[in-house]
Inverse folding.
């Protein structure tokens, strides 16, 4: 597998379930007595930071590990950004493990134009105090799955290099996975190439491995994540929480808003990655359909496209759940509640 390029490591034990008090947002649906074990694979990234907060701050998720991959920035930077987010949010019982520093094939593409030189520009972060595990992300994934007393869900919100490498290295683990939730792809146009979304374009071969793995997958592409906009009202609600963590979230989303305005002409930035976590917490948040899907690997102008047959013209069998619609207010209720929980505990 590609080498790990993060120098400083410290071993962290695998955590048990996180416990948090119920708040008003939980009363719409009963809390599970057995939180779902989850591995969050990410490349922080502003929206990845929000996904970490939602996964760690909601009591129905038992966040067993945060694994990092090169994508929005280099592996060293995305790993440091995971440390930064966990430090400011007081998430000190979840191992962070660095994974693959390049895609399965070709050179790494990063998104500094969107996320800045650090990958998490905006706030003035202090030195992180949360350590990085000394194991490779793939080994941490395997250990979490092997020790879990129920099937584990992987949520992949960056390029899927780590996830594909794990599935190839430990094929017997596939039967111990509940599903893989993915932020990636698009049923229409892309955001990095005309028909390719960033996460899939960075490593199309990895996305293809995951899609063909036999593990159930749900793909939350641009068609649904572009509905998860951080409006001015959303920013006011987060600021109104009045905690240091909330202030950092506003700074992150303000920077993200400004880059989206400059690059794409959008007034309100889509906060892509937490959509995959929100769907796990409350399936009503995302409306999905089971559809036929392929990953384009060789197209001269379309490499990295997610080819989703929404009209039944190909004759392909449906092989993936695809997110199509988002309950905007319900989504933000979940995310703001998680920020509130973590900020109050910090």
């Amino acid at each position: 597998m590609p080498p790990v390029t993060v120098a400083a490591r410290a071993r962290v034990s695998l955590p048990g379930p996180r416990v948090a008090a119920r708040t008003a947002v939980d009363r719409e649906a009963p809390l599970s007595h057995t939180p779902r074990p989850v591995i969050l694979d990410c490349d922080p990234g502003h929206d990845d930071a929000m996904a970490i907060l939602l996964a760690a701050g909601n009591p129905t998720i038992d966040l067993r590990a945060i694994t990092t991959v090169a994508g929005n920035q280099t592996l060293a930077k995305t790993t440091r950004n995971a440390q930064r987010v966990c430090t400011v949010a007081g998430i000190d019982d979840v191992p962070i493990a660095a994974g693959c520093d390049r895609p399965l094939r070709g050179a790494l593409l990063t998104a500094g134009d969107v996320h800045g030189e650090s990958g998490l520009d905006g706030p003035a972060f202090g030195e992180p105090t949360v350590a990085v595990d000394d194991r490779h992300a793939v080994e941490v994934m395997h250990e979490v799955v092997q020790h879990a007393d129920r099937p584990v869900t992987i949520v992949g919100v960056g390029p899927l290099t780590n996830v594909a490498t794990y599935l190839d290295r430990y094929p017997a683990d596939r039967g111990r996975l509940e599903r893989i939730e993915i932020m990636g792809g698009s049923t229409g146009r892309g955001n990095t190439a005309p028909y390719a979304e960033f996460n899939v374009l960075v490593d199309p071969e990895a996305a293809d491995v995951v899609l063909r793995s036999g593990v159930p997958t749900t793909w939350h592409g641009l068609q649904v994540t572009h509905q998860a906009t951080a409006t001015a009202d959303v920013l006011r609600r987060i600021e109104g929480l009045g905690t240091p963590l909330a202030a950092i979230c506003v700074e992150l989303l303000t920077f993200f808003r400004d880059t989206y305005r400059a690059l794409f002409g959008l007034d309100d930035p889509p906060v892509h990655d937490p959509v995959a976590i929100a769907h796990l917490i409350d399936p009503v948040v995302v409306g999905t359909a089971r559809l036929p899907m392929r990953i384009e690997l060789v197209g001269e102008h379309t490499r990295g496209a997610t080819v989703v047959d929404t009209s039944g013209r190909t004759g392909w069998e449906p092989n993936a759940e695809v997110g199509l619609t988002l309950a905007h207010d319900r989504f933000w209720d979940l995310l703001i509640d998680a920020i509130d929980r973590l900020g109050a505990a910090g």
